[in-house]
Design goal:
Blueprint lengths: L2 H20 L1 H13 L4 H19 L3 H15 L3 H36 L4 H14 L3 H16 L4 H23 L5 H27 L8 H4 L2 H33 L3 H38 L2 H37 L3 H6 L6 H21 L3 H26 L2 H20 L1 H4 L4
Helix pairs in contact: 1-8, 1-12, 1-13, 2-3, 2-8, 3-6, 4-5, 4-7, 4-11, 4-12, 5-7, 6-9, 7-9, 8-9, 11-12, 11-16, 12-13, 12-15, 13-15, 15-17, 16-17
C-alpha cells in the first residue's frame, strides 16, 4: 500500500474523531456554567459530584466501545460481516444487561457513595436529585458506546462523529432550556442529558440502518449470545475492564491526593489535567484510526499495510506531541489564565508548568499503542501494562512524597505513562504478529 493511500486512510478516520472529541469538554463547561447561574455554589458542587458518580460507573464500562471496536475491525478485515453483526449484538445485549443492573442497584450505590463522600447537605441533596434523573439514560449511554466502537471497527468515524456532536449539542441546548426556562432548576441539567442520550441513540440506529442495512439479515440474537461466543467476548472485555479499573484508580487517585494539599494546589492540578486532556483529544483521534486500521489489516493478514500504518500513526502522533510541547512552552501560563482568573492559582502553577513539556511525548507513545493494541485485540498486554503502571504510580508517590511533596504526584503520573509506553513497546512484536 502506497504512503499516500495509508495517510489518506489515517486522516479519513482520525479527523472526524478529533472534531468529535473537541466537543466533549463543551458539555461539562456549559453544565457548570448553568449551575453557576442557578443561585449558589451548592448547585455547582451538586452537579460536579453527581457527574463524578456517573464517571465511576461508566469509566469501567469503556470496554463496550473498545472491545467492540477491535473485534469488529478484524472481522471487517476478514470480510466476515456475520461476526461483525454478532459482535454488535453481543455488545448491545451486554450494555442493556449492565444498564438494568445499574437501575437495580442505584439506591444502594448512592447510599454507599455518600457514606464515603463528605459534602454539605445541600450539595448532597442536589447530587442525589441529579443522579436519580440521569440514571434513566443508562441504556442509551451504554448502547452508544457499543455503536461508537462498532462504527469505528467498520472503518467509519464520520458516523460516531455525527452522533457525538448531536448528543453534545442537544445536551447543551436541552439542559439550558430545562434548567433556566422551567421550574426544574438543576434537575433540568440532568433531564437534558437524558434527552440528549436517547436522541443520540435514535440517530445511531437511523445511521446504522441507512449505512449497513444490507448486513441486518445476518443478525441472530440467539446464536450471538451462546455461551461459547459470549465467553470469548467476555474474555477480551474482562481484560479491558481490569485495564479501565486501573486507569480509574490512577485518575481518581491523582485528584484525591491533590486535594490533600489544599484548595489552591487542587485547583492547579485540575487545570493541569484539563490542559493535558486537551492535547489527548488530538492524539486519541489518531489512536482511533490506528485501532480501526490495525484491526482491519490483521483481519486481512496484510502485514505490509499493518506495519506501514503503525509507523505513520506514530509519525502523526509525534508531530502532534511536538506541536503541543511548543504551545505549552510558549503559552503555558496564558493558558492557565484562560482557565481561571484566580491570581493565586495562576501564580501557584509556575513550579508545575515544566511537566507540560515532559508529558506529551511520553503520553503520546502510550496513547498511540493503546489504539494499536486495541485493534489487535491484544488485551492481555494492555491489562498487564496498566496493572504495572498503577502499582508503580502508587509506589513512586509513596517513595518520593517525603522529598518532593506534591511534585511527587506529578512524578508518579509521569512514571505511569513511561511504564505504559515502555511495556507496550517491548511486547509490540508479539501483539502485532499475524497468525
Amino acid at each position: 500500500m502506497k504512503i499516500g493511500s495509508i495517510n489518506r486512510n489515517i486522516l479519513r478516520l482520525a479527523l472526524p474523531s478529533i472534531l468529535a472529541n473537541i466537543t466533549v469538554p463543551l458539555v461539562g463547561i456549559v453544565d457548570l456554567a448553568i449551575a453557576g447561574h442557578l443561585g449558589d455554589a451548592a448547585s455547582i458542587g451538586g452537579i460536579a459530584i453527581g457527574s463524578m458518580l456517573f464517571d465511576l460507573l461508566y469509566w469501567n464500562m469503556g470496554f463496550l466501545r473498545v472491545g467492540t471496536g477491535g473485534i469488529t475491525a478484524q472481522a471487517y478485515g476478514r470480510r466476515d460481516f456475520k461476526e461483525a453483526m454478532d459482535t454488535f449484538t453481543r455488545g448491545i445485549v451486554t450494555a442493556l444487561t449492565v444498564a438494568l443492573l445499574i437501575w437495580i442497584i442505584q439506591w444502594v450505590y448512592v447510599e454507599a457513595a455518600f457514606a464515603l463522600i463528605v459534602c454539605s447537605p445541600e450539595v448532597e441533596s442536589i447530587a442525589r436529585q441529579y443522579f436519580f434523573i440521569r440514571v434513566w439514560a443508562a441504556p442509551a449511554t451504554l448502547s452508544l458506546m457499543v455503536f461508537k466502537g462498532w462504527f469505528i471497527g467498520m472503518q467509519n468515524t464520520v458516523l460516531p462523529m455525527a452522533v457525538d456532536i448531536t448528543v453534545n449539542v442537544i445536551n447543551v441546548v436541552a439542559s439550558y432550556i430545562l434548567a433556566v426556562y422551567t421550574p426544574m432548576g438543576v434537575a433540568g441539567v440532568a433531564a437534558g442529558t437524558v434527552v440528549a442520550q436517547y436522541s443520540g441513540l435514535i440517530l445511531a440506529i437511523v445511521l446504522m440502518t441507512c449505512n449497513f442495512k444490507e448486513h441486518f439479515h445476518l443478525i441472530s440474537v440467539r446464536a450471538s449470545v451462546k455461551w461459547k461466543k459470549m465467553k470469548g467476548f467476555f474474555s477480551i472485555n474482562g481484560n479491558l475492564f481490569v485495564r479501565s479499573f486501573c486507569m480509574l484508580v490512577i485518575y481518581i487517585g491523582f485528584t484525591s491526593i491533590a486535594a490533600r494539599y489544599g484548595d489552591t494546589l487542587l485547583a492547579v492540578s485540575s487545570v493541569m489535567m484539563k490542559l493535558l486532556m486537551l492535547y489527548s483529544y488530538f492524539v486519541d483521534g489518531f489512536a482511533y484510526a490506528g485501532e480501526a486500521l490495525v484491526g482491519r489489516f490483521i483481519g486481512e493478514k496484510n502485514s505490509d499495510a499493518l506495519m506501514s500504518t503503525v509507523r505513520w500513526i506514530f509519525i502523526w502522533c509525534f508531530a502532534i506531541s511536538a506541536i503541543s510541547t511548543l504551545i505549552y512552552a510558549g503559552l503555558g501560563k496564558p493558558m492557565f489564565r484562560l482557565m481561571t482568573d484566580n491570581v493565586e492559582v495562576v501564580e501557584a502553577s509556575t513550579p508545575f508548568l515544566f511537566w507540560l513539556l515532559l508529558m506529551p511525548v511520553v503520553s503520546c507513545i502510550a496513547f498511540t499503542w493503546d489504539g494499536i493494541f486495541i485493534g489487535a485485540t491484544a488485551t492481555i498486554q494492555l491489562r498487564n501494562s496498566m496493572i504495572w503502571s498503577a502499582l508503580l504510580f502508587v509506589a513512586t508517590y509513596i517513595i518520593f512524597e517525603p522529598l518532593l511533596g506534591i511534585q511527587s504526584l506529578y512524578l508518579a503520573y509521569f512514571v505511569h505513562l513511561l511504564v505504559r509506553s515502555l511495556y507496550l513497546t517491548i511486547v509490540r512484536k508479539k501483539a502485532l504478529t499475524i497468525k
